[in-house]
Amino acid sequence: MPSLLGRGAVRFERGRVIGGVTNCAADMEGYLTGQAYVELKYAVEGTPIYVYQSAPEKAGPAPSKMKLGDKGLLPTEAVVVSRFPKL
Where are the beta strands (DSSP E) in 27-75? Predict the structure, then answer.
């Protein structure tokens, strides 16, 4: 799965990568919907995860090294939904 880790799905209770985003699209209202591979234990509807969108190739400074005015990449909150929504 290395090619997917540029846009990693991260579970923040321990801050580790649990999968990777395969695709994503925005609807007319700006909501994002996407698909990702995640470890089976996290593939439960309602599980909160975080996703880094458009993660750069090179990591920025560590949070402990940042100074006032520095920019950092923040993950977007997401939730696991059913692959086949109930309409």
Answer: 32-38, 48-51
Sign, Cα dihedral of 74, 76, 77, 83: negative
Q: Given the structure tokens 């975080």, which residue do they identify?
A: 50
Single out the residue of 48, 56, 45, 63 nearest to residue 18, CA to CA. Answer: 48
pTM: 0.69
Distances from the Cα of 1 to the Cα of 18, 32, 59, 63, 71, angstroms: 11, 22, 19, 27, 28
Q: Which domain holds residue 25?
A: 2-60+67-79
- The total of structural domains in the chain comes to 1
Residue pLDDT, tens place only, 16-60: 888 888 888 888 998 888 888 888 998 999 999 888 877 667 777
